[in-house]
Write a structure and sequence with these properties.
Structural class: alpha+beta
Number of domains: 2
Number of helices: 10
Largest sheet: 7 strands, antiparallel
Number of strands: 14
Distance between the termini: 19 Å
Radius of gyration: 19 Å
CATH topology of the largest domain: D-amino Acid Aminotransferase, Chain A, domain 1
Helix content: 25-40%
CATH superfamily of the largest domain: ATP-grasp fold, B domain
Order of helices and strands: HHHHEHEEEEEHEEEEEEHEEHHH
Strand order of the largest sheet: 12-11-10-9-8-13-14
């Protein structure tokens, strides 16, 4: 079964506007600047703060192992992960997936990435040091390294992702989930679910969680480039819980426009990975559909028309494919 192509390959700016495609300037001016007060950015830019907020508001999230914020602490990281079979190292103030290192197994000296590549102690030490120096942080400011347990992702995705953990991105506007996609790792993306590095984005219906469209590097694809699995056969487990988790995130931060990244653990179900106050626009390519008209519909609603997350989810499922 071939996924439907909703937008032509080449199109004028006027046609893009008519199709409801949201551009970067309008996103920045009309949505990010208008609905996201900068004083609230630390809620999402600081990953440890995000995790603590999630724990406070009962939002399920990946298990915290620890953090390192000073250079002299780096040599203690083997002790931190001694009894942790797998882990992820993230820059506390990173963005775009830069600086994230996934370790699937280790013996304290040899650390194995999802693609089987081996990293030594010195590599991990240098990577943490680079994080602390601000190599991957927003604005290049000094940072800290956050350690989390890996997601034991559900077997339902095994045919659709190359080694790495898939994650679902949901755009939430004024508490309403308005657009979604799942990012699937490839060999090209080194097992990371990052579209800029070569992962595949598959648009997901807000209504029922079915696949709508798929793209890699802005080109339509119908099958996974490494496994050959047809994206039309993809099933998102616990879709209702994904929507509930995303909508609940709006309760823990005053930000009005953000992206919620969610992954499915085989035992714990959907878990929040992180929030993004400046979610990218590639989700429109993954869906083959513009975002602007959905945002305008939510803006047209009377304030407090839907008071609970459940009511906002019901509205979104009724109005957004």
């Amino acid at each position: 079964m071939r996924l439907p192509l909703k937008l032509p390959k080449f199109v004028s700016p006027e046609k893009l506007f008519e199709s409801g495609v949201l551009g970067m300037n309008r996103r920045n001016h009309s949505y990010i600047m208008r609905y996201n007060d900068r004083r609230n950015y630390p809620d999402v830019d600081d990953k440890l703060r995000t995790k603590k907020l999630a724990m406070k508001y009962g939002v399920a999230t990946a298990e915290l192992v620890g953090s390192i914020d000073c250079q002299f602490q780096v040599k203690s990281f083997p002790k931190m992960i001694k009894d942790v079979p797998d882990f992820v190292i993230k820059p506390g103030h990173g963005s775009g997936g830069r600086g994230i290192l996934v370790i699937k197994s280790h013996d304290g000296r040899n650390f194995y990435k999802p693609n089987g590549a081996v990293c030594g102690y010195n590599f991990i030490y240098d990577h943490i040091s680079n994080i602390l120096s601000g190599l991957y942080s927003l604005g290049g400011r000094p940072d800290y390294a956050l350690f989390e347990r890996c997601i034991d992702f559900s077997d339902v995705y095994s045919r659709f992702s190359y080694q790495g953990v898939p994650d679902v991105r949901l755009i939430v506007f004024k508490g309403y989930p308005v657009m979604s996609m799942i990012r699937l790792a490839t060999k090209l993306s080194d097992g990371r679910a990052n579209l800029h590095q070569g992962a595949v984005g598959v648009g997901i219906s807000i209504r029922d969680g079915r696949p709508l469209f798929a793209a890699q590097h802005n080109c339509e694809v119908t099958h996974h480039p490494d496994t050959g699995a047809a994206f039309s056969e993809l099933v998102i487990p616990h879709w209702e819980e994904h929507l509930e988790l995303a909508a609940k995130c709006a309760e823990m931060t005053p930000l009005g426009y953000f992206g919620a990244d969610i992954s499915t653990d085989s035992k714990r179900g959907p878990l929040l990975l992180e929030l993004n106050a400046r979610p990218g626009l590639a989700i429109q390519i993954a869906n083959g559909c513009g975002l602007l008209k959905r945002l305008q519909l939510v803006e047209s609603l009377p304030e407090n028309l839907h008071k609970t997350p459940e009511e906002r989810i019901a509205f979104s499922r009724e109005n957004f494919d």
